[in-house]
């Protein structure tokens, strides 16, 4: 799903999950990813919550979030409601939904999420190339707006640019690698003439972030990585996948012992902020309390 040859090669080491990304509802996505202990949205939740609270301090108002590679609205569900990733696996794996039609799942979910108290005053716009997943997330009420575009190959339409002006925080989990600096290049004009959002990406260690960092620096953004911390994305799908990923990381000089050798794909956290914001509080300071 990426046009970047360098990322394309790296992606070949990973098990291909494309078939579960664009279904009419999230049941297959959660069924398949549960087998692999897909965990990164849950690991990211407290980090995103912290960033949302920092953004709220500035404006004391609804925080506007753009979730890149939003899929079925996974991060929106976790951040809007008092739900864990385990709750989502349970919810979409329920016996009573097993034989439901996708329309029935949407209907069920619309009521389910409407009846939950929102724990965070946020609005989430989701962008993903998978049209069905985005449509589901909108219809179930998880996304306030859904954008089904592939910014790797197409520009943002002008009306969408306006819609993105209020964004305070851009976030992503499991998306960099599919999305490259090309998507950021197309997003940045739309998101930087308004509130100058912070940009928060969880990135598998196999994907270099330097090209995206460079693109962001052209827009006066500074990128910092949360040092010394890795986040579990998921288990390896096979011994072969593990070996290929380990080989790739070792070729890059990344130490995998006690890390990927223990059986999990690991992500790191990158935060990009306007120069002035980064100078005021370094990344560690944001998560100190
Ligand atoms: C591993 S899933 C992560 C989904 C979600 N963020 C999560 O953590 O559960 C990767 C997502 O990236 C999306 N994706 C792939 N190529 C993309 C592109 N060019 N632009 C936007 N999204 C893309 C896929 O459709 C899929 O929903």
Topology diagram in text:
Blueprint: H1 5-12, H2 18-21, H3 27-35, H4 40-59, E1 63-68, H5 74-80, H6 85-92, H7 102-115, E2 122-127, H8 131-139, E3 145-147, H9 158-163, E4 169-172, H10 181-192, E5 198-204, H11 210-217, E6 221-225, E7 231-235, H12 239-251, E8 264-274, H13 275-280, H14 283-286
Parallel strand pairs: 1-2, 1-4, 2-3, 4-5
Antiparallel strand pairs: 5-8, 6-8, 7-8
The structure holds S-adenosylmethionine.
**Whole-number mean pLDDT:** 95
The CATH homologous superfamily is called Vaccinia Virus protein VP39
Query: SSE string, helix = H, strand = E?
Result: HHHHEHHHEHEHEHEHEEHEHH
Number of H/I helices: 14
CATH topology name, in short, is Rossmann fold
- Per CATH, the class reads Alpha Beta
What gap, in angstroms, lies between the N and C termini?
39 Å
How many structural domains? 1
Bound small molecules, by name, code or SMILES, are: S-adenosylmethionine
Name the quaternary structure. Answer: single chain
Write down the Rg: 18 Å
Structure write-up:
The protein is an alpha/beta fold. The chain has a single domain (5-286), classed as 3-Layer(aba) Sandwich (Rossmann fold). 44% of the residues lie in helices and 16% in strands. It contains 14 helices and 8 strands. It has helices spanning 5-12, 18-21, 27-35, 40-59, 74-80, 85-92, 102-115, 131-139, 158-163, 181-192, 210-217, 239-251, 275-280, 283-286, and strands spanning 63-68, 122-127, 145-147, 169-172, 198-204, 221-225, 231-235, 264-274. Strands 1, 2, 3, 4, 5, 6, 7 and 8 form an 8-stranded mixed sheet that branches. Helix 10 links the parallel strand 4 and strand 5. Helix 4 crosses helix 5 (74-80) and helix 10 runs parallel beside helix 11 (210-217). The chain is globular. The protein starts with a helix and ends with a helix. The model has no long low-confidence stretch (mean pLDDT 95). The structure holds S-adenosylmethionine. The site of S-adenosylmethionine (SAM) has 19 residues, from helix 4 and helix 5.
């Amino acid at each position: 799903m990426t046009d970047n040859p360098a990322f394309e090669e790296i992606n070949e080491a990973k098990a291909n999950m494309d078939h579960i990304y664009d279904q009419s509802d999230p049941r297959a996505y959660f069924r398949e990813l549960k087998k692999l202990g897909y965990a990164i949205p849950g690991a990211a939740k407290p980090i995103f919550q912290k960033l949302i609270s920092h953004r709220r301090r500035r404006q004391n108002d609804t925080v506007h979030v753009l979730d890149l590679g939003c899929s079925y609205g996974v991060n929106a569900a976790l951040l809007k409601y008092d739900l864990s990733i385990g709750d989502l696996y349970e919810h979409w794996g329920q016996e009573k939904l097993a034989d439901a039609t996708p329309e029935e799942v949407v209907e069920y979910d619309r009521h389910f999420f409407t009846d939950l108290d929102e724990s965070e005053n946020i609005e989430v716009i989701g962008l993903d190339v998978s049209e069905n997943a985005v449509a589901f997330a909108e219809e179930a009420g998880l996304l306030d707006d859904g954008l089904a575009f592939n910014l790797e190959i197409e520009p943002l339409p002008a009306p969408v640019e306006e819609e993105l002006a209020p964004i305070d925080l851009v976030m992503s989990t499991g998306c960099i690698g599919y999305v490259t600096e090309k998507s950021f290049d197309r997003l940045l004009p739309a998101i930087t003439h308004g509130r100058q959002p912070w940009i928060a990406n969880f990135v598998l260690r196999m994907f270099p972030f330097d090209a995206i960092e460079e693109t962001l620096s052209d827009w006066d953004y500074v990128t910092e990585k949360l040092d010394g911390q890795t986040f579990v994305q998921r288990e390896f799908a096979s011994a072969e996948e593990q070996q290929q990923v380990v080989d790739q990381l070792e070729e890059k000089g990344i130490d995998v012992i006690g890390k990927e050798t223990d059986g999990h794909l690991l992500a790191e956290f990158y935060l990009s902020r306007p120069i002035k914001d980064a100078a005021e509080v370094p990344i560690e300071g944001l998560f100190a309390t």
